[in-house]
From TrEMBL:
Record-given protein name: Lipase
Signal peptide location: 1-22
Residues of the active site: S176 (nucleophile), D344 (charge relay system), H373 (charge relay system)
Domain of life: Eukaryota
UniProt organism field: Populus trichocarpa
Family under the similarity heading: Belongs to the AB hydrolase superfamily. Lipase family.
Taxonomic classification: Eukaryota, Viridiplantae, Streptophyta, Embryophyta, Tracheophyta
Keyword annotations of the record: Glycoprotein, Hydrolase, Lipid degradation, Lipid metabolism, Signal
Length: 403
């Protein structure tokens, strides 16, 4: 644990250095400097034999977020597109998270080969998205958001775009933070009316039973507050200084798989090569405010709007504490599916049960005792263990209805 804490403090120091003295370093690993042809379609999807197109959506607060659309490599489908499915990634990830295994193992590819019209979301600040209409990524205002804005602006706008293009209601699939976003978005009547059903992998709305040792230690040390107090707004773990640090740590000192375990819990079903490929694309940047919001949830046991403190809460919300997201407002008629694991240190079974009690709907559930948080993305047997069950749930609802 002491060595893990050294990593955490090194991360904080490197973030401070990269924020306060960015001009002194050439961050070759900052993937915002991609050339135009280095898109997610060109990097991961087209090389696997799938057609893929890039889309950009502007949110109501001016961010330019990327969507990719892919379809089956199976020519027997005759170019027919099935119901639209929007995939929403988790924290410090982006749309590439759905394509980090073979076509037979990765959910994005599997859904396309099953005939679905697959759309891949990438929230603001991630390497595949495209900035803002007026703000630079160097501006602190660019990073003034948490998962709340990702839900109410980014995800809502992506759902609207897919619904508009396809003229069909949309199936939503979220993982981890993507499930927090989905639940918050589905409370909004103007969003849920465009959604056919939602499948939530490692569903999160409450976090007060998190058991991940490194996460709990960071929460106890109030590292989220320290980061913001130091004037750090962007959390970019792919700065050159940090990549060099992690390379040295993982080279004979600490297994990077163990580092993942300390954050997510023990994962049963992927191998070291999967971890290596994972770190080729992850992590993506997020905001310090987003981390603070998640840590607030862990400390307070709430599923609420961002807590700005008593005086600003009064100004913004008209009350001392931020209002809760009311899960009972998600319509009872909306079909839900949830998959979660017994070794997941972030999505605790107790917190899932609390979520289930607050929902009007009775979701279909898939519980896998030996699965951890990342197994639901990276398991070599995910199709058999998880995805076939999810696809059967979608198929049981019939063809997506037009609107």
């Amino acid at each position: 644990m002491e060595r893990m804490l050294l990593i955490v403090f090194a991360i904080i120091i490197s973030l401070f250095i990269s924020t306060s003295a960015a001009g002194e370093f050439n961050f070759e690993a900052n993937l915002h400097r991609r050339s135009p042809d280095e898109t997610l379609c060109n990097q991961l999807i087209k090389p696997a034999g799938y057609s893929c197109t890039e889309h950009t959506v502007q949110t109501k607060d001016g961010y330019l977020v990327a969507l990719q659309r892919l379809s089956s490599r199976n020519k027997d489908l005759g170019g027919q597109r099935g119901p639209p499915v929007l995939l929403q990634h988790g924290l410090f990830m982006a749309g590439d998270a759905w394509f980090l295994g073979s076509p037979e193992q990765s959910l994005g590819f599997i859904l396309a080969d099953e005939g679905f019209d697959v759309w891949v979301g990438n929230v603001r600040g991630t390497f595949w998205s495209h900035g803002h209409i007026s703000l630079s990524e160097k501006d602190k205002e660019f990073w003034d958001w948490s998962w709340e804005e990702l839900a109410l602006f980014d995800l809502a706008e992506m759902i609207h775009h897919v619904h508009s293009v396809t003229s069909s209601k949309v199936f939503i699939v979220g993982h981890s933070q993507g499930t927090i976003m989905s639940l918050a978005a589905l409370i909004q009547p103007n969003v849920v009316e465009m959604v056919e059903a939602a499948a939530l992998l490692c569903p999160i709305s409450y976090l007060d039973h998190v058991t991940a040792p490194l996460v709990l230690r960071m929460v106890a040390l109030h590292l989220d507050q320290m980061v913001l107090a130091m004037g750090i707004h962007q959390l970019n773990f792919r700065s050159k200084i940090l990549i060099d640090l992690l390379d040295s740590i993982c080279d004979g000192h600490i297994e990077c798989a163990d580092l993942l375990t300390s954050i997510t819990g023990k994962n049963c079903c992927f191998n070291s090569s999967s971890v290596d490929f994972f770190f080729e694309f992850e992590p993506h940047p997020s905001s310090a405010k987003n981390l603070r919001h998640l840590f607030q949830m862990i400390r307070k046991g709430t599923f609420s709007h961002y807590d700005y403190g008593m005086f600003k809460n009064l100004e913004l919300y008209g009350q001392l504490n931020p209002p809760a997201f009311d899960l009972s407002l998600i319509p009872k008629t909306l079909p839900l599916w949830m998959g979660y694991g017994g070794h997941d240190s972030l999505t605790d079974v107790t917190d899932v049960e609390r979520t289930l009690k607050e929902l009007q709907a009775k979701p279909e559930l898939l519980y896998l005792e030996n699965y951890g948080h990342l197994d639901f993305l990276l398991s070599t047997q995910g199709k058999e263990d998880v995805y076939n069950n999810m696809i059967a749930f979608f198929r049981s609802l019939g063809k997506s209805s037009s609107s």
